[in-house]
Design goal:
Length: 496
């Protein structure tokens, strides 16, 4: 309570401080002042006495024992930059949060904050951060990225209290907070690279031009140092212990800061917001955030129940592919429970490098047997062109780059707590290619399609997907020859 009272006092000349802060920030970006914030905080004098620094922006007052003014400046600025993006995500007008402001403590030595009463004894122990409606506490992390991530994460919880009464049950609350704190930092301009030899927490604010954006997937490790969620996904993928989508929704209503659980909540929230089947229901659910019980989840589940097999299938594909560079724009997979049943006639389709998995467009009943033929070329890198068998000089996740792959994806949602491994196979092998070349020298057939020797048997009603094996962040290389577009042409023939 003392803290809250002091906080209210600090708000009195907030508007003036904010204006000053903004002016000086512009000067800092222009290189006029390197650390202009020193005398701005309302309680600078007590802060100096206790060795704490305070930085203040329109929406965040940050107090810390970390002697890194540039980091603290970065954190309050990032918080203010994130706020309008959070509101836009929830479709809430900016005016709802004009006067919203919270207190944050970034703590290196937790005892300092306990002694001063800033960290009350009644709070539970936590490894990373903790939030209440008006105050958040963050344990100092080794990288600028992760300090920022945690300030934003706890800030999202506080904002959910403000806007919706609370953030819903754990899976939803943590998933949303992770989604909205995963961010891409401002990119330094090439001419103003920070001098070499700076620490991991070196400021980038003064050298920055590119916008700071939340709800971004990391392109590489350098985008999110310290975050490490993809490592968890890869470990479970290798061990065959990835959770089903339903089991994520059944996580305890109170998670105890377990990073693994947060990973699944975040991935599920990313899926729900990116899938046309669930986006609206997921965002609408935020308005019921005051309800932190299982009733919240039941209502959300009811809203998307018709589409659950599709969502569950998307979840399996997501976890199979989730890695640095994963980009939702490459995963616009058309998948529907109302896809028609395969008629038994041959199907022709083009598989293109701009998308990952691409559906054949129908579902296949149990007992169907499929045989494939394929032809065509596609750049897998500026230097390399591949055909459906792939190139053996370069590999992506253990299989040849450019290889045409098939995935038989059961429509039924997997039972149990973990998802079965995805059934992904090459369509055309090198042996198939060698055989076709040998046969074509003895025949007058001018077709270049290679017939795959493998027969795929459908064991339960399934969608059939095809893709060109390319790295997660692959950007298609423009074809130099418009007469032969970048694609594999595939023929799928039912067989006995
Ligand atoms: Zn949280």
């Amino acid at each position: 309570m003392t803290r809250e009272a002091e906080y209210a006092g600090g708000m009195m000349d907030k508007r003036l401080q904010t204006q000053l802060w903004r002016v000086l920030l512009v000067m800092a970006i222009g290189g006029i002042a390197s650390s202009p914030f020193v005398s701005l905080s309302a309680d600078d004098s007590p802060a100096t006495e206790t060795g704490l620094l305070t930085r203040e922006s329109q929406h965040l007052r940050l107090t810390s024992d970390v002697d890194d003014p540039a980091l603290l400046d970065d954190l309050v600025q990032s918080f203010d930059d994130a706020l309008p993006q959070w509101l836009a995500f929830w479709n809430v007008p900016e005016s709802r949060a004009t006067n919203w402001k919270i207190q944050a403590y970034l703590m290196q030595n937790v005892d300092t904050f306990r002694r001063s009463g800033a960290l009350p004894d009644y709070l539970p122990r936590f490894d990373h951060g903790y939030s209440t409606p008006h105050t958040v506490w963050i344990r100092y992390q080794d990288t600028t990225y992760y300090n920022r991530h945690l300030v934003l994460h706890e800030g999202v919880h506080s904002l959910a209290f403000e806007l919706f009464g609370a953030g819903g049950p754990s899976w939803y609350m943590e998933g949303t907070a992770e989604l909205l704190s995963l961010h891409r930092d401002r990119v330094p301009t090439p001419s103003k690279q920070p001098p070499s030899g700076l620490s991991a927490n070196a400021p980038v604010l003064a050298q920055s031009i590119d916008a700071f954006t939340i709800n971004q997937l990391p392109r590489n490790r350098l985008d999110t140092p310290g975050w490490g969620r993809y490592k968890i996904v890869a470990r479970h993928r290798d061990a065959g212990t990835l959770p089903t989508l339903k089991s994520v929704l059944k996580l305890p209503t109170a998670l105890n800061g377990e990073v693994e659980a947060y990973t699944w909540c975040w991935a599920a929230s990313s899926l729900f917001t990116q899938s046309p089947e669930s986006r609206e229901a997921f965002l609408e659910a935020a308005g019921r955030g005051k309800d932190r019980t299982e009733a919240f989840t039941s209502e959300f589940y009811r809203d998307v129940a018709d589409q659950w097999p599709v969502l569950s299938a998307r979840w399996r594909l997501l976890l199979h592919d989730l890695d640095y560079g994963f980009d939702w724009s490459r995963h616009n997979l058309n998948l529907s429970t109302s896809d028609s049943r395969a008629s038994g006639s041959p199907i022709q389709m083009s598989v293109t490098p701009d998308q990952a998995w691409q559906s054949v467009g129908v579902w296949f009943p149990k007992g169907a047997k499929l045989r494939f033929a394929a032809e065509g070329r596609c750049h897998v890198s500026p230097e390399w062109v591949s055909e459906p068998a792939g190139i053996t000089l370069e590999y992506n996740r253990g299989t040849p780059l450019g290889q045409l792959q098939v995935c038989v994806l059961p429509i039924a949602t997997p039972a149990g707590a973990t998802i079965p491994r995805l059934d992904v196979r090459p369509v055309i092998t090198r042996t198939d290619v060698a055989r076709t070349i040998a046969e074509s020298t003895n025949s007058s057939d001018s077709s270049t399609a290679v017939l795959g020797s493998q027969i795929i048997e459908i064991k339960e009603p399934s969608w059939v997907l095809l893709r060109i094996n390319l790295p997660a962040g692959h950007k298609p290389i423009a074809s130099v020859n418009n007469d032969s577009p970048e694609a594999y042409r595939v023929q799928i023939a039912p067989t006995r």
